[in-house]
Structure formats: structure tokens, C-alpha cells
Amino acid sequence: MALTSSTMLALGSRAPNFNLSDTQGRHWSLADFSDDPALLVMFICNHCPYVIHLKTALADFARDYAAKGLGVIAVNANDASAYPADSPENMALEVARYKYVFPYVYDETQEIAKAYHAACTPDFFLFDAQRRLVYRGQFDDSRPGADKPVTGKDLRQAVDALLNGGEIASDQRPSMGCNIKWRDA
Which residues belong to any copy of the Thioredoxin domain (predicted)? Predict the structure, then answer.
């Protein structure tokens, strides 16, 4: 595990389209979220301690914002052949265990992670109704082994501002976690 920070993709970047299958075999694309005034694309996985630290809070966060108009999708881009804990079968177990209310899709080719410039798990990308990037950064400043509670403060402030027509702070701190487990070229 190599501690890695978000690449901090340029604000205003357009959301790359995707067509990825979830743990039930349904395919998801940007068009599936066209009625949502905001979309959160999260790059997570099953085994990263930084994601494990947030899993319950991520599930709660998505439930809190589902009725407010936030579309949420989680993408696992890790190489499951080298990291079997991140296989689609194990992803299905995670969905059931944490009662995710968002699709959890597998990016087997890793093309979508590359298109988003995702670097770590977790990595968060918040888009407005025109699918322009308005926030990329950390969930909050809690980390495994640290003495800070998981609140989702940073991401909640950005989502609240976006959904309420407020100003989203431009001072955004990168997310930190395990590097995405890229396939050997």
C-alpha cells in the first residue's frame, strides 16, 4: 500500500462518460443520473484501510443525500486478479453488508479511472447539473488510526453548497488513501 493523494483534477472539467456494470449486472452511465442536479463519483475498493475507515459513513452519507437530489456512484478500478478482495463477487458482499443505496460498479479495464484522473481510494469527484467538476478532495480530515471522528464535513459542505445554490470553497484538500492498483502494462 502506497499512501497517495488525489490528483486534484481541474475544477470545471467535464465528467467523462462511463458504461460500467454493478454487482447485479446492470450497466450504468452518466445518462442514468440525468435527473439528478448533482452527481458524486467515488473511487473506492473493498480492502483499502482508508476506505474501510469510511464505509459506514459513506453509506450513511449517500442515504442522507439521496432524497436531496445527489446522484452517487462508486467505482472500483483495482486489479482484482492481483487483489482478489476487490473482485466483483466481494463487491456484492460489501453492498449487502453496508446496505449501499448507490451502484457499486467495476472498472475492469481501468479506462474510467484514468479518464477521471483517479489516483487513490477513496477519491471523490462532485459534479453540478451540467456535469462540470465543482469539488474534488477529501471526505473529511479523519484517517485510520487518527483521533478524529469521521464526519464527512468537507464533502457535506460542498454538496450542501451545490444543492442550495451557494458558493463552494475553492480551497479543497486532496483525498488520501491507497494508490489504485493498476494492471501491469
Answer: 9-164
For the entire predicted model, the pTM comes to 0.97
Instruction: Report the alpha-carbon distance of residue 60 to residue 101 in Å, rounded.
Output: 9
What is the tally of structural domains in the chain? 1
CATH number at residue 24: 3.40.30.10
Question: What pLDDT, on the 0 to 100 scale, is given for residue 185?
Answer: 55
> Is 138 domain-assigned?
yes
Burial string for 29-58 (b: 16+ CB within 10 Å, else e) reads: ebebbeebebbbbbbbbbbbebbebbbebb
pLDDT tens-digit profile of 91-144? 999 999 999 999 999 999 999 999 999 999 999 999 999 999 999 999 999 999
Q: Give ∠ CA 54-59-61 in degrees, rounded to 5.
A: 90
Contact yes or no for 102/74 (Cβ under 8 A): yes
Domain of residue 100 covers 3-179
* 184 found inside a domain: no
Q: At 100, which helix (H) or strand (E)? A: none
Answer whether residue 141 is part of any domain: yes
| Number of Cβ atoms within 10 Å of the Cβ of 147 | 6
